[in-house]
């Protein structure tokens, strides 16, 4: 019976969650100490509103490229089937 009371006391999560003082994690303590000496730079919530143009191909170019590859594979498979004796 005493063993069961020990286990219940050891794993009583409701009691632990109801405690008034909660110790921060090791990572939180480390970041708090680091930021106390050297605070991080502010980071904007939203991305830059002006996207850079010209670094990516347009959607039409991508579509034409994919459809061209599909058409080339179809033609190649048809030609190979025509050339085979069976």
Q: Count the strands?
A: 0
Average pLDDT, all residues: 80
Radius of gyration: 32 Å
Query: How many DSSP helices?
Result: 4
Strand content range:
under 5%
User: Mind summarizing the main beta sheet?
Assistant: none
Overall morphology: elongated
Given helix and strand content, the structural type is mainly alpha
Q: Compute the separation of the termini in Å.
A: 83 Å
Oligomer: single chain
Write up what this structure looks like.
The protein is mostly helical and 86 residues long. The chain has a domain at 59-86. The chain contains four helices and no strands.
Keywords summarizing the entry:
86 residues, 4 helices, single chain
Topology, please?
Blueprint: H1 2-10, H2 13-17, H3 26-37, H4 59-83
Q: Summarize this, please?
A:
It contains four helices and no strands. It has helices at residues 2-10, 13-17, 26-37, 59-83.
């Amino acid at each position: 019976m005493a063993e069961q009371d020990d286990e219940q006391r050891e794993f009583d999560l409701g009691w632990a969650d109801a405690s008034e003082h909660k110790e921060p994690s090791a990572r939180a303590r480390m970041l708090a100490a680091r930021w106390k000496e050297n605070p991080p730079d502010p980071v904007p919530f939203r991305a830059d509103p002006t996207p850079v143009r010209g670094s990516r191909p347009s959607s039409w170019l991508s579509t034409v490229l994919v459809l061209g590859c599909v058409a080339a594979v179809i033609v190649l498979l048809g030609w190979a089937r025509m050339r085979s004796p069976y």
